[in-house]
Write a structure and sequence with these properties.
It is a single chain. By secondary structure, the protein is an alpha/beta fold. The chain has helices at 14-19, 49-58, 60-69, 93-106, 117-135, 149-158, 164-175, 178-183, 186-189, 197-207, and strands spanning 2-6, 25-29, 36-38, 42-48, 74-80, 111-114. The protein has 2 domains: 2-135, Rossmann fold (3-Layer(aba) Sandwich), CATH 3.40.50; 149-207, 5' to 3' exonuclease, C-terminal subdomain (DNA polymerase, domain 1). 49% of the residues lie in helices and 15% in strands. It has a 6-stranded mixed beta sheet with strand order 2-1-3-4-5-6. Helix 6 crosses helix 7. The protein is globular and about 50 Å long. The two termini are 26 Å apart.
Length: 208
């Protein structure tokens, strides 16, 4: 795994935890958006639970989400800490839940939960490993087989690396059929919110 760490994250302690992981190289530089770029593919924005709540209150959260969606990489939120970190903050639980719903379902940005910096580093590594397995065709989804033509189309598209159910639905709404998605140009695919150049290249490499 290769990780580029934004220089503003250098004091978070996660840099030291990343350095202890096997088969991991780390570089520190300024990233235009996000905090951790993994394998030049996955862009992670790390927020403590407290900072997540504060950024929701002052309006930074969704402005940042728009920038992440415009990134050429597949973006992910890493939410670090516990609800105890919200003590003494005058913010309703429903507001936090609403923000999570908006980020995941409307913006198509996954959210991973971590207890602390050490677990954050491990999750970066786990995610990198799973993405490599998916790209190499080693990750299979046993058991569930969808019934009905629309669900089967979603199932097929969501199995592509970096797509998932939300973007699969967006692709079908935009292009109508799997064949049309396969025949779409990179420029056409870039019109899907959150679908970056790196993901498109991976998908097209598999389809071709």
């Amino acid at each position: 795994m290769h990780v580029i760490v934004d220089d503003r994250e250098a004091r978070s302690g996660i840099l030291q935890h990343l350095g202890k992981l096997e088969k991991t190289t780390v570089a520190v530089q300024r990233l235009p958006v996000g905090d951790y770029l993994v394998d030049n593919r996955l862009l992670f924005e790390r927020k403590t639970v407290r900072d997540f709540a504060l950024s929701l209150c002052d309006g930074r959260l969704f402005n940042q989400a728009c920038r992440l969606c415009s990134s050429p990489y597949s973006a992910v939120y890493m939410l670090e800490g516990s609800t105890a970190d919200l003590n003494n903050l005058n913010i309703r639980r429903e507001s936090i839940q609403g923000a999570v719903i908006s980020l995941t379902l409307l913006y198509g940005l996954p959210i991973l939960r971590s207890l602390n910096g050490e677990e954050t580093a491990r999750l970066l590594s786990y995610t990198s490993l799973q993405m490599r397995k998916t790209a190499e065709g080693l990750f299979r989804r046993p058991g569930y087989r969808p019934k009905g033509h629309p669900k089967r189309k979603l199932y097929v598209l969501s199995s592509l690396p970096g797509i998932g159910s939300v973007r699969a639905n967006q692709l079908l709404q935009r292009f109508g059929t799997i064949r049309a998605v396969c025949n779409a140009s990179a420029e056409e695919l870039m019109q899907i919110p959150g679908l970056g150049e790196t993901t498109i290249k991976m998908v097209q490499r598999i389809l071709n």
